[in-house]
Each structure stands twice: as structure tokens, then as C-alpha cells.
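The data are set out underneath:

___
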Amino acid sequence: MRGGRARADVRQALLKSGFSHLYPGIPTGEWHPAAVMVSLVLSVHPGLSHEEGDRERVLDERHFQFRGLPSAGSQDDRRRSRLEDRQDRRSEAE
């Protein structure tokens, strides 16, 4: 997928070259569907914990670039996370 056109309906991820040492065997500078990249990262770091609904968080935003639309499930996860953050702040303020 190197340099190819991005499909708007598929979230894609690219490993930044400065972080290649953290992910041996994963090519840098190549766009892959985010789901494929998650599988690659988990194969390199099998002990990395994740939940099925939390797969995209396996990809550290400092290490990867993203393009395309996030999946509906990913958007739901973000909404749920923001709601939990608000609830935590409320309970801390009480």
C-alpha cells in the first residue's frame, strides 16, 4: 500500500520511522489497514494486553500516523471513554 490512495472507509495506520526499533519486523512508511497493523503489533508484543473493543488503542498515537475514518466501534469506544472520564472527574470533585 505504499503511497497508494487511501480508502475513506478504511482506517489505516503507518509506523513512523523513528519508532521502528520498538516494532521489529513491521515496515515503516507503509500504510496498512489499522486492523492489520494491530495484528502485526500484537504479534511482535504478544503480552500487550487489550480488549476486543479496544484494539485501536494498541497503536500508540506517538508511534503511528493514521488516515481514513475511524470505525463505528472505535467512535463508540471514544464516546464511552469520554463519558467515563467525565464520571471520574465528577466523583473526584465530590
